[in-house]
């Protein structure tokens, strides 16, 4: 797929919902550039300290936005991060919030080694639709869409749906 127009979107959601799997597979199917914000931050040490309670670095959001800005202008990008409200609205044509059943999410996060408060807070984030609400507050409601992400069939359906949307967007804008 050749991109003549800017096309940028974000799969987002609570950790463990399948953003990275979806984003990488989507990049292979569409030719879009996949950017994992966590990897970008790690490579560039784009941190502003360390959170002892959650045992993870604190993202320096301003530096991340600065680092991505030029890539975003070029377009053709899939941005993978558990939140999206830190990014300017002008960056995205569409935002997909992946949603997972809480019991499945709990098992996935436990399998990643999440424990205690970190595990509980992430499951609660999914229960209370925190990421979806943040996306709805940060962006035009027309570009924010929820997708189920519980099974391999959901993944395949989501990929097919997003590929079709991408192809239609390209036809409409080129």
Q: Mean pLDDT, nearest integer?
A: 92
* Beta-strand proportion: 15-25%
**The number of domains:** 1
CATH-level-4 superfamily name: P-loop containing nucleotide triphosphate hydrolases
Task: Provide a quick synopsis of the model.
This protein has helices at residues 19-30, 37-44, 61-74, 102-111, 116-127, 130-138, 152-173, and strands at residues 8-12, 33-36, 47-51, 56-59, 77-80, 94-99, 144-148.
Overview of this structure, please?
The chain is an alpha/beta fold and 174 residues long. It has a single domain (5-173), classed as P-loop containing nucleotide triphosphate hydrolases (Rossmann fold, 3-Layer(aba) Sandwich). Helices cover 50% and strands 19% of the residues. The chain has seven helices and seven strands; from the N terminus they run βαβαββαββαααβα. The chain has helices at 19-30, 37-44, 61-74, 102-111, 116-127, 130-138, 152-173, and strands spanning 8-12, 33-36, 47-51, 56-59, 77-80, 94-99, 144-148. The strands form two sheets. Strands 2-5-1-6-7 form a five-stranded parallel β-sheet, sandwiched between helices. A hairpin with a 4-residue loop joins β3 (47-51) and β4 (56-59). α1 crosses α7 and α4 (102-111) packs antiparallel against α5 (116-127). The radius of gyration is 16 Å and the shape is globular. It starts with 7 loop residues before the first strand and ends with a helix. 30% of the residues are buried.
């Amino acid at each position: 797929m050749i991109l003549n127009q800017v096309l940028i979107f974000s799969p987002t959601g609570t950790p463990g919902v399948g953003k990275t799997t979806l984003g990488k597979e989507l990049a292979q199917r569409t030719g879009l550039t996949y950017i994992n914000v966590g990897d970008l931050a790690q490579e560039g040490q784009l941190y502003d300290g360390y959170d002892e309670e959650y045992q993870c670095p604190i993202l320096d959001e301003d530096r991340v936005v600065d680092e991505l800005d030029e890539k975003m202008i070029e377009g053709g990008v899939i941005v993978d991060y558990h939140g999206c409200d830190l990014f300017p609205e002008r960056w995205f044509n569409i935002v997909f919030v992946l949603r997972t059943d809480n019991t499945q999410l709990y098992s996935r996060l436990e399998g990643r080694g999440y424990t205690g408060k970190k595990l509980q807070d992430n499951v609660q984030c999914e229960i209370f639709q925190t990421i979806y609400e943040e996306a709805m507050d940060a962006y035009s409601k027309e570009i924010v869409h929820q997708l189920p992400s519980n099974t391999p069939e959901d993944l395949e359906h989501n990929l097919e749906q997003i590929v079709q949307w991408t192809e239609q967007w390209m036809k409409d804008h080129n």
